[in-house]
Amino acid sequence: MDLWGVVIAVVAASLLIGFMLVSAVFSVWMERKVAGRIQDRLGPTRVGGKFGWLQTLADGIKLLVKEDLIPASADQMLFRVGPYIALAGSFVAFIALPFGNGMVGRDMNIAILFMLAVMSSEVFGIILIGYGSGSKWALFGGMREAAQMVSYEIPMALCILVPVIATGSMNLNQVALDQSGIWNWNLFHDPFTFASFWLYYTCALASCKRAPFDLAEAESELVAGFHTEYSGFRWLVIFMAEYGSMFAVSGIATLMFLGGWSIGIPFELTNIFGVGSTLGWYLGNAINVVVFIAKCWFLVFVMMWIRWTLPRLRIDQVMMVCWKYIVPMGCVLILGVSLWVLIVPDWLQRVVQLALFGVSVAGVVLFILTIVRLTRTEPGTAMVSMFRASETIGYHGAKPPVV
Predict the structure, then answer these.
(1) Which of 77, 183, 185 is CA-nearest to residue 129?
(2) Residue 133 Cα to chain centre, angstroms
(3) CB–CB of 288/101 below 8 Å?
(4) Burial of 196 (0-12, 13-18, 19+ CB in 10 A)
(5) Where are the domains of the chain?
(6) Dihedral sign from CA coordinates of 263, 268, 272, 274
(7) Among 3, 116, 226, 276, which one is most buried in terms of CB atoms within 10 A?
(8) What is the 3-state secondary structure of 302-329?
(9) For each successive 10 residues of the chain (403 residues), what is the average pLDDT?
């Protein structure tokens, strides 16, 4: 590789790592605001204005100047290198993630397999973090997390194979281009891709250590889990890896199921604006990048919504759901989509595709109307059982005080 190629590679890597870190900063702020909203509190409101925009930056500066402690019983080398291996596994996946038409660090014909493979290497960092801490609680958390991540990588790959079979390509850029028009998204391609999206998203939650699958951080027995002994900058790196993985798996879901950077029209913006104009091509891709990032951040937001809504499962339940239910369901979906592509005539495929699209739109509208109705009603009137569990007047059936 010549010098110019090295410069281009360094610049591209710097842009990707910069975006990953900025995305993590925004995600931390968003998580705190989502948690505050769901728990009926404000969240960050002081640093950076009314909405606390700079709160995460202030916390990051605090972590940078915080004392970096290493337990006396820890393995010095493993303790130091573990967080960076986890971060590298999360970052390398961004190399093959296209943000727009051709806007990708490295265009690969097997991009989806590359992303799944490198993201799975994050588990090595988790194991080193737990083992190198010299604490049995950190080790237990690392082993739990390793078992969980390795287990859920299998159904994740099975779910991704469903849209791969439907589209006939593992090139993420090409898969996104084939989904121009919202009704052509792979989510609505057939019943098997529709089910595969929800199954994949469930596995992504477990793979990213998100609730209700965050068993490595069970407060009752493991405190913070595999990163219990960490503080300062290395603690920050561990969470940057987690939020980077959340965006990466959301990017895969967006590209494979939700049309990639498509805004829903049956035309590619770079082809519209870029006819005879290089500037127009860049303008179209700028819109593509914004749309793609917005879709990914929305999926990350849903992960946070789920985390602060659902209770944690037990570790045996987490593993049982994976091996006893999700893996067989993934195999059934692969068989189903294969038969669908081979046997079902094109006209029937199109009818089912439009029907799935219509039902989904109706479901989204109904969901939005329900949310609006709930926000406009007084507490206890829309969901009475939340405040009164029996016919007896009072909170959860408690008798009113005698005056």
Answers:
(1) 77
(2) 27
(3) yes
(4) buried
(5) 71-343
(6) positive
(7) 226
(8) HHHHHHCCCCCCCHHHHHHHHHHHHHHH
(9) 78 88 91 88 86 90 87 91 92 92 89 93 92 89 89 94 93 92 92 96 90 75 79 89 93 94 86 77 90 95 91 87 94 96 93 93 92 73 52 50 58
